Amino acid sequence: MDEKVRFSVIVPVYNRIDEVRDLLESLSRQTLKNFEVVIVEDGSTDRCQAEAESVENLRVRYFYKENEGRSIARNYGMERAAGDYFIFFDSDCVIPEDYFAVLSRELDAKPVDCFGGPDSAHSSFTSTQKAINFAMTSFLTTGGIRGGKMSLEKFVPRTFNMGFSRRVYERVGGFREMFSEDIDMSTRIRNAGFSIALIRPAYVYHKRRVDFRKFLRQVYVFGMSRITLKLLYPGSLKVVHALPALAVIIGLVLVVLSAAVSPWFLLPLGLYLIAIFVSALVSTRSPVIAVKALPASVIQICGYGCGFLKAYFLKIVLGRGRDVEEEILMRKGK
């Protein structure tokens, strides 16, 4: 515990005791301990203070504040952090034991202002969690934009595994309370002239949603928030972001044509699902996960696409601001 505090790990928490326990346990096993952990309890009714203060071999500082949202909680943590870099994990992450050793080595070799890493599924995760992880990271479903080896878009760090220097914070400021606040933050950092890099070896295990219903709600909101980002940054919307919406439209057309003309119109959809199954089977080596990857991928594409289309119609075609439904989902998404 004699290493200097180089990194401040900031974790906003809202009623997630079990997740925090697993996260802190994984952080206590780090081979390099040049970091502190700042837990910001954002108005939880089920507090994790006992878990935060009972972990051995780990520098943890616990703060409780009234509920204002995860972005404000992160800003609260940064204001009290001691490190030269701020690292952000979600409470449902588990961190490989060499994470900070890898991160320190990579930053020493090639310093960068802002960085992020990919996420993966731990062997202990359920088959549903692993299927959802595949749907969120596969090139066939998201274009590899979340840190994949192949990607249709420039890498943008997400707050399940993101970091930036204190200098960035002092120049750009903190997070804004909104959906996709990490993409907004990354865009502001890039626009301020700071460098952003993907550090692929610095990955985390991300549990994500534990069932398909919660996953659907999550990706639906992601689709809606992409239009909010487009309004904030007109040049930020890329073709890859609209692909799920296009897939929804094409899929509906094919289904109608199959019913009215010939079932052969469903062939492209069938071939796409076969490609997803094969890809999931090869990457996970599990027939069970590969089967579950089919509904997970359909949910990911359709949920995101429908949210995107609805927000586009409401906010761009009709010119409305943030939708009431988006406000409700944002509060539920804690």
How does this structure look, described?
It holds the Pfam family Glycos_transf_2. The protein is α/β, with parallel strands linked by helices and 334 residues long. It folds into two domains: 7-210, Spore Coat Polysaccharide Biosynthesis Protein SpsA, Chain A, CATH 3.90.550; 214-332, no CATH class. Helix content is 52%, strand content 13%. The strands form two sheets. It has a seven-stranded mixed sheet, sandwiched between helices. A three-stranded mixed sheet has the order 5-10-7. Helix 9 runs parallel beside helix 12 (287-317), helix 10 (239-260) packs across helix 12 and helix 11 (267-284) packs across helix 12. The protein starts with 6 loop residues before the first strand and ends with a helix.
In a nutshell, what does this entry contain?
With 334 residues, the chain is an alpha/beta fold. The chain is built from 13 helices and ten strands.
Strand fraction band?
5-15%
Largest sheet features? 7 strands, mixed
Q: Which regions have little confidence, pLDDT < 50, spanning 5+ residues?
A: 328-334
**Class by SSE composition:** alpha/beta
Protein name: Glycosyl transferase family 2
GO molecular function: transferase activity
Keywords: Membrane, Transferase, Transmembrane, Transmembrane helix
Pfam families: Glycos_transf_2
